[in-house]
# Entry
Amino acid sequence: MAESTAWTPQRLNDTVARGEIYPLYFLHGDETFLIDEALASIEHATIGEGMRDFNLNTFYGGEAEASQIRDAVETLPMMSPVRLVVVKDAHSLTDKEWDFLMPLVENIVPTTAFVCVATKIDKRKKHIKRFMEKGVVVEFKRPYEDKIPDWIRTLAKKHELKLQGEAVELFHQLVGSNLQDINAELGKLNQFLGGKKTATVDDVLKAVSRVRLDSVFDLTDAIGRNDRARALDCLVNLLDNGQNEIGVLAMISRHVRNLKLVSDGLKEGLAGQRLSSKAGISPYFLRSYVEQARAWSDRKIEKTFQALLDTDRALKSSPIASHIWLENFVVQTCV
# Structure
């Protein structure tokens, strides 16, 4: 049985890779791509490909009846040692529904892997406390910005690709920090390369989605140049093309951080390759950043960071439509 402590994603990956499957899992956090990857690994280790129709049940909190979930967990697997029952959006389950499901935690069904998935959890709740005592609880946090290049290299390996040093920086600049987007664009890059397995800067420029490339740069460039009307138009274009609001805010945040790094470098008298290296920005985009950084005072950068923080909180907690908060950020910032 699992120890009564929270696990790291790496520990979960290692145990699943060894074929060690536990009866209770609670996967939570804001990095949905890594959660989906972990779920796929657990599924592969428990039921493989041939028995999905017989031994896999997937439910959604807020839609499924608690009795349906409990019945599925208590059902014996068919022609397999383990049944897999997944409850997504488990944060939508009510306390009453959890009371009905708690016997599954207190009296574990050894022939079922019961996996709950949520974007957030309240560790004060008794069902979470009992899950942490009886099962495996893993938090999947969104990687810090400085770790994204390593993630690009790691995900590239899964596609049997290698990106040259400067190509990694450029890919990061173009695609952003969302792991789902990074993985999707690496798939496109792999198709573009055909049998070639090493990607250059030119390959990245040619393969990355033009809609994404143009829209992302149009938006961040407009904000960097304080062009409110253009920024609002670009924001609408991005959202209309399927980019989620959190992803848009992450792109803007990265651009402002880069402006801060360039601004600091300019104050130190750096230029050219030295400034590019210090700021971690591809030379292809340095000139534009320098032009914008010269127009941004320390006070404006500080106020923008605070506005980004406030907008992030609002996107995650306010009932008001997310696009309104982003539009409000643009109006506040582009003055």
